[in-house]
Amino acid sequence: MTLQSQTSDLLPGFDHAAFDSNAVFRVLLDTMSRPGRIYDLPVSIATPDGLNASATATLLTMADMDTTIWLSPSSATKSANDHLKFHCGCPISDDVAQADFAVARIDDDLSFITRLSMGNAEYPDQSATLILMVDDITNAPAMKLTGPGIKDSHDLAIKNLPASFHAWRTENHHMFPCGVDVIFASPTQISALSRTTRIEVI
């Protein structure tokens, strides 16, 4: 197979690379600084099998050749691997402990989250970010969020979020300034939990 035929099989990235990546980056900044707020994905983007649009846009914005990505078994399709390697130039690892970004679906086996890098006292920024693909994000009263970036409190609901996630997230919060940040990615929306966010399950 020639290089030309290989690249012709790949999906396009952003329609307007600089403009679209900047738009997504601004949304991600707002999402992390205002935990629990729900933001619409500001671009339309082709999605490889295994990823949804918000996860794809986040990775194309944040990942580069110095960013290691881990994909869950349900996400690690050939299409997703080829797409990320071509558009981001990023290494994709089989070891979740090495990941800068770990990507999974809400209905995957999430036991891997306990192996995500939490950084260390000298370099807390070397922790992983978990991108969890979900069907829907709402402000229904399922979790009550408090902490930096939240005035009083904020409600957030993620359907089918398992109890094991909440147990891990409580421990994760207590490790500050270390800890994993979480991005919830529905097909059209993004929300996040910063490591500083406190959660009360309602």
Could you explain how this protein is built, in words?
This protein is 27% helix and 22% strand. The N terminus is likely disordered. The chain is built from five helices and nine strands, in the order ααβαβαββββαβββ. It has 202 residues and is of the alpha/beta class. The longest helix has 17 residues. The N and C termini lie far apart (55 Å).
Features of the shown structure:
six-stranded mixed sheet; single chain; alpha/beta; globular; disordered N terminus; 27% helix; three-stranded antiparallel sheet; 202 residues; 9 strands
Concise summary:
27% of the residues lie in helices and 22% in strands.
Q: What is the element layout, followed by pairings?
A:
Elements: H1 3-8, H2 17-33, E1 39-40, H3 53-62, E2 69-71, H4 78-88, E3 101-105, E4 129-133, E5 137-146, E6 154-158, H5 163-173, E7 181-185, E8 189-193, E9 198-201
Parallel strand pairs: 2-3, 3-4, 4-7
Antiparallel strand pairs: 1-8, 5-6, 5-9, 7-8
Note the total helix count: 5
* Mean of pLDDT: 91
Strand arrangement in the largest pleated sheet? 1-8-7-4-3-2
Terminal CA distance: 55 Å
**Estimated radius of gyration:** 17 Å
What's the helix-strand series?
HHEHEHEEEEHEEE
- Report the β-strand fraction as a percent range: 15-25%
Helix and strand content put the structural class at alpha/beta
Q: What profile does the largest beta sheet have?
A: 6 strands, mixed
DSSP summary, beta strand count: 9
The global form is: globular
The level of helicity is: 25-40%
Low-confidence stretches: 1-6
